Amino acid sequence: MTRYRIRAALLCAALLAACEKNAVQVLPTAETIPGGRVKFFNFGVNAPGVNFYAGTTKMTAILSGSGQEATTGVTYGGAGNGGVYLAITPGAYTLTGRIAATADKDLAIATVTATLDDGKYYSFYMSGFYNTTTKTSDAFVLEDPVTPATDYSVAYVRLVNAMANANPLTLYARYTTGDTTRVDTLNVAVAYKGASGFTALPAGVYNLFARYTDSTTDKISRTGVSFLGGRIYTVGARGDITITSTTATNRPFLDNTVNR
């Protein structure tokens, strides 16, 4: 009995120690989470898979089945970390996309210098066309002015143009779950590397299409896109505007990503 009492006393002492204010805390607090947010996209036509960096810090990587880092990286059309914002300490950074493959491993092929402010959200886009001779791709950074929704009956949608060989684009949305004659114009013409503001749309399913300002021809289209109430979305135009195939990897495409 004495032996059991000693063990019980030691257990109680350990529990009390764990509850002391000086005990190690394993849960993060608001003060320990960096205040900046950034996400990364590989929209560089013909670009290899990359890992994204902020300065010397690797922000994205993909694990293989063996638990080692995969050499595929974020491939064309993909978003780092599944399109989720990554926390980052506010400040000035050189943001890069670096080759993930064994050949030319960690070679920076896309570079942007940007200041990421506290409490703000940003997106880094590899864009344009990958140059196989210089091993470079175009890139740009945009602030994502996301704020908490004020109306949960609507979704908020904007357009980002990451197509280097496209004229300024206007995005339209045709309602398919209500008044099917309704077509919303979501922005004024957005030039390459530009973004529109967010437009409120009734929550529902839409067919999207983008046109040049002087045309009634759909340059890009996508059907059956769901927008949920209270959510914020960025539709990214990517690809080669000259491709007419409906199955080619580099065809014009409207990517849909949730910001919040």
Outline of this structure?
7% of the residues lie in helices and 41% in strands.
Question: Which short descriptors sum up this protein?
Answer:
single chain, 260 residues, mainly beta, Immunoglobulin-like, four-stranded antiparallel beta sheet, 1 helix, 16 strands, disordered N terminus
3D architecture notes:
The longest helix is centred in the first third of the chain and has 18 residues, at 2-19. It contains one helix and 16 strands. Strand 2 and strand 3 form a beta hairpin. Residues 1-30 have low confidence and may be disordered. By secondary structure, it is mostly beta strands. It folds into two domains: 28-144, Sandwich (Immunoglobulin-like), CATH 2.60.40; 147-260, Domain of unknown function DUF5300 (Immunoglobulin-like), CATH 2.60.40. It has one helix at residues 2-19; strands at residues 36-42, 50-54, 57-58, 86-88, 91-99, 108-116, 121-131, 136-144, 154-161, 169-175, 183-185, 199-202, 204-212, 220-227, 232-238, 253-258.
